[in-house]
Structure formats: structure tokens, C-alpha cells
Amino acid sequence: MAANPRDIIIRPIVTEKTSDMMKDNKYTFQVAMGANKTEIRQAIEAIFNVKVVNVNTIRVLGKTKRMGKYEGKRSDYKKAIVKLAEGNTIPLFEGM
Q1: In 38, 40, 59, 71, which residue has its Cα 20 to 30 A from 78's Cα atom?
Q2: What is annotated about its quaternary structure and interactions (predicted)?
Q3: CATH number at residue 25
């Protein structure tokens, strides 16, 4: 896997459900498909300078979509739910 933590963490996922999870100190990110839990933990700790307690990963399959007679598929992606230690927050999500 890539040595750069920013190659592992692609983007934060902010929805109504993930915003509710932030109250429990859980943050959701889209991550590289080949990344494992240890690499995700190290990347989050390096980028945001926080202590990670737990990492859960989910592989999300892309939906099949139709436009008239044509059919296409959204890309698959991997999602990581990261629980931080008490007192740690990610400033990117402040004010949400």
C-alpha cells in the first residue's frame, strides 16, 4: 500500500447518519480499496493528530443505474468508521 497517508484516506463522508455518529466520537471516511485497518488507523492519526480507539470497515457495492435503455454501474468503494479516544476531535468536522 502507499506510504502517503493521504493516498489511503480519500474523503470524509458527511450524511445525516454520520453526523449523528459524530456525537459518539465516530467519524466516517472513504478509503482506498486495498487499505487495511492498521493502515487506516495510522493514516488518521498522522493526518489529524488524534488517538484512534477502533476502526470498522465496510465494502460498499456500487448501485446499478439505468438511463432509458442503457445500464451503468456506480463504482464500488470502501468505507471506514473510526472511533476516536475521549477528548479527541477532528477539526474538519467542527460546526456541523
Answers
A1: 71
A2: Part of the 50S ribosomal subunit. Contacts protein L29, and trigger factor when it is bound to the ribosome.
A3: 3.30.70.330
